[in-house]
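Possible regression after last week's pipeline update?

I re-ran a chain I had predicted before the update to compare outputs. Posting the input and the new output here so someone can diff against the archived version. Not blocking, just want to make sure nothing changed silently.
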Amino acid sequence: MNQLKNPSDLIFDKESNGFIICDRGNNRVMLWSRQNYTCGQIILSDIECNGLIMDNQGFLYVSDTRHNSVKRWRVGEIQGTIVAGGNGQGNRLDQLNYPTYVFVDWDHSLYVSDHLNHRVMKWMEGAKEGIVVAGGRGKGTDLTQVSSPCGVIVDHLGTIYVADYGNHRIMRWPKGATEGSVIVGGNGQGQQANQLNGPTGLFFDRYGNLVVVDWDNHRVQNQTINCPIELSSINGRVIIPPPIEPSSPQDDIQIGHIWTISIINSFGKIYYKLIHTDESQLANIEFEDEPTMYLNASLTGKWTCDIQRGITLTQEIVSSSSMLVNHRIIKTITKKLMSTN
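New output (post-update):
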């Protein structure tokens, strides 16, 4: 109980104050308490696990490459429930072929890296079959393809990030897109700073940097991702989009007489902080679903929206009004926003 063999994935469980580990080489899932690092506890046995994730209700999802399925357990349960695959090895929409890493979003939709089908699948909660959300056009290097995908994560906008293992790159697929874009690597297999060699796991840190497990280079890469940001105007309102990455910087930038909107993500919730140059906080607004800030368009001053480190949007304020969030008045302010474009 004090050894592991070829562990492939782990998460931290707050409730048990321990690490849940895919002990792949021993065909089991272990719970390793922070209070006792010398010995672990078997919580699932006889499972060829590769990836795991826990949702916000405490359910554990584990991929099983032997049975080409993903099962869901409440920690402590003996029998799990199949939530993806489990219909034999194959490439139908109700099948998987060597599922590796998994991710669960806020509405409990499950994303699976379907490794040998060279695609990423999304299974809505309770669905009998999945839909292809990345790849699925055979193994290849085209932007419509992935090759033996591994790590997968999804942000608040539904954008999918995939460790494209066989192509030595990280790809980003916007929600509903039929092709992705390369955001890390893509410069051939190698060990240079702009190259990867068999990337597997990935996640975003608290500052919005993408952390990549560069498996065959025996290193971990920390990448700053540049995201295209656009402000748009609908019915006379300027719309500031929600954060592009799952984690955004928690720094309040103040320059001269500039108002600042800082976007913070903490444990799945989005916070907008409105702060004036005199450091008085006007509002601390919390969102849980698809946060979008609306400001009625049309006094002197500026708004700055720092969405990600290195990306700052500034707009002129020309009069006073109320601020609306999702068509609901949250805070009345004495300035208004209008696009300078």
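Follow-up from reviewer: compared with the archived run. The domain at 137-171+192-227+258-273 is CATH 2.40.10.500 (Thrombin, subunit H). Marking as no regression found.
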